[in-house]
Amino acid sequence: MACTGVLPFVRGVDFTKNDFSNGQFPESVRLMTGVQWLKLDRTDLKEIPEELGKLQKLEHLSLVRNSIERLHGEVTLLPCLRSLNVRHNKVRASGVPPDLFRPDELSSLDLSHNCLREVPEGLDRARSLLVLNLSHNKIENIPNSLFVHLSDLLYLDLGHNCLETLPPQTRRLGNLHTLVLNHNPLGHFQLRQLPSLVSLETLHLRATQRAQHNMPQSLEMLTHLSDIDLSCNGLASLPECLFTLRSLRRLNVSDNCISEISSAMDIWQNLETLNVCRNRLTALPASLCRLINIRRLLLNDNLLDFDGIPSGIGKLSALEVFSAAYNRLEMIPEGLCRCGSLKKLVLRGNRLVTLPDTVHLLTDLEVLDLRDNPGLILPPRPCPSGDDADSSSASHADSTASRLRYYNIDFSLRNQLRLAGAMPPGTPRQSEQGTPAKDAVARKMRLRRGISRGGTSGGGRDEVDGDQAKILKGMKDVARDNVESADNAREHGNKVDSLKPRRWDEALERPPLDYSEFFEEEVKEREGLFLWEVENFLPSPVEEAAIGKFYEGDCYVVLRSTRDLETGGLNRQIFFWIGEKATLDKRACAAIHAVNLRNWLGARCRTQREEMGDESPEFLALFMTDDMDDSEDGESTGGIVYVRGGRTPSGFYTVEEATYPTRLYRIHTVGSAVHLEPVAPSSASLDVGHVFLLDIGKKLFTWAGPRSKNTLRSKARLVAEKIDRNERKNGAEIVTEICGQESTEFWKNLGHEDGLPPPPSSGIPKEVVDHNYVPRGSRLYRVRLGTGYLELPQVEPVAESMLTPGGTFKAPHARPLTPALLASRGVYILDCYADIFVWFGKKSTRLVRAAAMKLCQELFVMIKRPVHALVTRVQEGTETQIFKSKFAGWDDIVAVDFTRTAESVRRTGADLVEWAKRQETKADLAALFAPRQPLMPVAEARALAEEWNEDLEAMEAFVLEGRKFVRLPEEELGHFYSGDCYVFLCRYWVPPDGDDDGAEGNEEAPDEEEEECFQCVVYFWQGREASNMGWLTFTFSLRRKFAGLFGERLEVVRTHQQQENLKFMAHFRQKFIIHKGKRRHLLDMLIRREKEKTERIAAENAKIAEEEAKKGVEGGTKNNVASEEQNGDVDASKDDSNKGESSGSKSGSKEPSVEKEEKKYWWEEDDDEEAKTADPPPKEPSVEKVEEKKYWWEEDDEEEAKAEEPPPKQPSVEKEEKKYWWEDDDEEEKSATETSTGETGKESDSGNADNSVSMADEGQDGKEGSGSRESSVPFIPRPPSMPKSLEPNSEPPIVKEEVKEKTPEKSKPPAIYKRPWLISCTDDGVSGVELFHLRSNGGPLCTRCIQINPEASALNSAFCYILKVPFGEGGGVVYIWIGTKSDPDEAGLVEEIAREMYGGEDGLGLQVIHEGGEPENFFWVGLGGRGPYEKDATFMLHSRLFRCSNERGYFTVSEKCSDFCQDDLADDDIMILDNGEQVFLWLGAKCSEVEIKLAFKSAQVYVQHLRAKQPDRPRKLFLTLKNKESRRFSKCFHGWGPHKVALE
């Protein structure tokens, strides 16, 4: 407790939005014995605090929005209680004690929004009740005795209950002004007591089952009834009793079934508001035009047309709001535009074709809503001429001001078409057509017409000459009068009037300065004595009680005003008094402000100087009183009292060194502002996701967590710079600390005396603040001082929107605090929980300041606060940056205002209209008016593909597995996985630049030319689910190797999924298949299963072998024979019998199992030396040689490996080596050396690996081809890994027949390992059902077959699909679904793709089905059941995607190509999608407010343009957000799926 002694004088305090839960209610409230009103709203109270029982003078108590259930106890002990508000609690009838209603003073009771089921007992005893609110409860019955004694009620609200009737005693409420019975089932209640309520002014019967039979027949006795609400009752017509009310001002009959209004409504001459929305009106009576006082007419959602609105509606001169939205209006009467007071005109959702031309004459119109009128064409604005030029310029200024919202860009369709080149540049605008152009020929014609008229009749010329003569005559008369007045002045002796200097008081003029900031306006008109003291160079008013007491260290300005009885004016005397010990600044300022006061008042007196101890009698007479007492600490002289010391500070800076407490602030962003939250100055307060500011006075440290945002870091730096510039006079040092590299001083100020950072085991810094943390709200109190009392009410912020124009929150409160709430005459207390600020206005009095400081100390102690909380005094004009951060829009910290909004410009004090005129805002919307990109013809696409494929000489494909790239199997060429990265090395033939002369007869010329005329292009393909690690791996491995081999002839093209270029797509001949997931995951799973299966079989075989070994030698001999048959590496020159004996003697009985262990995995190498001791060596060098030669760009530089063993069929291989461009000529010697080796090893090793067999076969093919080719046209055969699909008129086979014949079964990998898409397992997250969608975007070259989610809704009759449905135990069925509207070429292509993917596999059956012939057993089961799907794809002919961005420095709209995909939707942009039926405005998560505004206007312009170009296909504009796209939006994108997660 602060013990300031000020609490007993507090008359009222507002504790709203404080947290008083769990017994935190301040005990010092019991000391406020003089409190009369107390607000405890939103304080989380669950019961009445005990301290309230001590407040015996409490009259008004508010407990709104708490969790109170009972009102027993302290509330019943308040004898003076007059008003009790317990709205929005949990009070039950049993929780309201009868003693609560005993005080005779209780006049207002609010128990609404509680849990009452009956009227509280004893309520009828509260005879003084004037206001009773029991609404929003569950009361079913009103006791008869309630209204017997409550006859003085003025306001009664029983709405939203379960009442079926009212007691007859209701007629006793003769003084009742307001009766609210909304939402009660009063269907059988006749309202017979209603005519007895003669004082009734407001009657609300909303949703009370009113009809003609349960309404009184007449209400003539209710002469004061002015407000009636009968909405939501199902009335078929207006009750007759309403036409007896002459004083009716407001009538609400909305949400009924009224189809006609009687013409007797002209009796409502005082009617101001009529609401008949959501009825069935087809016409309004003509008598409506006689209601001349009506101001608001609401007619929404009816059946009104042009004839339904009376033509005389223009007589309603007071009409301000006319709302007729969602009717059938095609036109509005012209008389409506003659309502001069009209401010709001709402005609949304009608059938308007145009508006009257007079709509432009509504100068006071503020809102004009014409949305959802597709065929509306606004009339042209009338051309300015003659006297209308000024009004036209004013309207143009209004138009300029209205365009400020869109940055001075004219978004009219005509202007944008002109800018886009769709309109001739010389065509004038519609608004300028009436203004004649400045044509020289036309001017000559006008001059000739004027001359001819003057020459024939002379009337035109004479009229002009007459006007000019009148003007000249008037000027001569004025000059003659001036001369005569000057002559008369000379005759009367006033010759030197203009030359003689005037007296000082005659020459005194009021200066053009404004001193109202220092002196009050009331001083000009009031009589009496006024006194100001000089404080900080400025005059400060002195309280009336302190007038006459002068401090010897101060200076004063004194004004005496008396009324002149003759003239009625004020006579003034101005003095400035100088204290004996006053400082120089006070003496000078007293004299200056005395003169300023005289000039401001326009007084003709002199300012008199009075010094302490030498005052004039005139000055002393001002303070002479009979009851003047001497001061205890001063002396009295002639009516004034001298007081020792000084009361006001000097304006000079003192030499005292300022002290600054150590404060640590955590920086948050609240909208665009910065919030500084004080925290404990310790290392435990540091958070990895926030930025902190450590203030120790002469140094400011900024520390940023590793997860903090860059914007926060820059703003923290700006905050520190502002504190240094404005508060520390540029004397502080700003230090930026880096996490992990902090200075010793930083840790010392955070509590580490040794200056060392906390140990890593402490976990500092760590995540301290929750992600959903919202800073505490601030409460602003204003201190009010009266005669013997103090009040502390909260200041309610102005009612401004919580949202910015972009739709984002500006502050954590619905109504943020603004600097406009602070008045210069007041003193305010800002409670921020950890900080309390006391703000003094410049014109505030000293007594209020002193009282505010004491109240602040009490408020600081009342509420439990952290240890680091402080109380800070703030003077107006010297506010600290921490204090400013609590108010919205007060010196916001914005590094660079990239958005350049109207609000940010307005805060700078600039004139927005003039600013907008100077701006040259550029916008490019030409793409919206360009025609759609045409589809590529099939013939052109084929020609391009053939040309590109003819230039392609070779292609190698690699896929990223783990951390390295491996060769992609030939069977997988054309198959891509969204989680993988692929590399394709392509060699293209480039035509030579020179001539072909001399080529004939020269055999070496073609080879040299061939070596030079090529280019290598590397395509890096990245799936949308793959990380960027693949690109990094490629950059530091293969790319470096390719760059060293090909140098400048190498080009690297990085492409992403569904964003490939056409040349790359053409190499796959429309067989571009994209699978989901990663291919390696599937293979790893199958390898693991195969290992487990093989190990299980090996264990069983070992067990069987042991059992057979026990039976005898016969079983062992059989095993040896079996092992001999399996071992194929034996010399052919040996005898068969000797071979069997040696084999049997060396291998032993364990040879079969060892053999199986060696060859059971096709991907493993034969590196087990112990298992190979029984057989000839498998000639490993040959295998290594094949591995070395698997890449066509590598050279044969390892001669030792080739010398040990030659490759199979060396002669053909040698020819193949010489015809490839990447081989060297020095390999002939190596080949010859390899040829000298024996043929025996070559033949025996021909079946060891697939690669060697493949090379041998291709060597034979090359030999045959080399013999038949011509020397002039060199033939370049297909490399081993080059797909046959690249050769003209050929199809890529799935499996080679030669490999099947020559490869032994034990070393041949299963087909499922070469084609991973055959996997149909459902374990490890691998889905068995697969659905592929074939689609061409923009032409045949952009054809892809993409795996999508297997759902029936994904089907479309215009496309073809492949559905694979696996069985549980293996096998399955593959359906080729052909839509009824699909293209025949695509139908053949999808069947071909399906057969290549799944054909030739055991257990997989292929079935071609057409739409409508689907089997019920597996097809619809695989798709999750039969469901609806779209029957056409007309959107493919109209779909367009536009990108709106500001990245070029100005707003521009660009169109994506027709082959767009989902990844084109960028987070920082806004997209416009047109699907032929709707236009969608897609907002990215990081788009700016500027882009939202401009993109919205651009989309509107685009929709208007389409209405003119394609009237048969009108579009509507829709808004969609990221991750909230509808099916109408996503169907335009091939393979739609979840959005990619952006990496931070």
Walk me through the structure.
The chain is globular. It is an alpha/beta fold and 1544 residues long. The strands form 8 sheets. It has an 18-stranded mixed β-sheet, with helices on one face. Strands 39-43-45-44-46-47-48 form a 7-stranded mixed β-sheet, with helices on one face. It has 35 helices and 53 strands. The two termini are 51 Å apart.
Distance between the termini: 51 Å
Report low-confidence residues grouped into runs of 5 or more: 384-404, 424-439, 450-461, 494-500, 628-633, 799-813, 895-899, 995-1010, 1121-1192, 1194-1308, 1321-1326
Number of helices: 35
Structural class given helices, strands, pairing?
alpha/beta
Overall morphology: globular
Number of strands: 53
Keywords:
alpha/beta; seven-stranded mixed sheet; 18-stranded mixed sheet
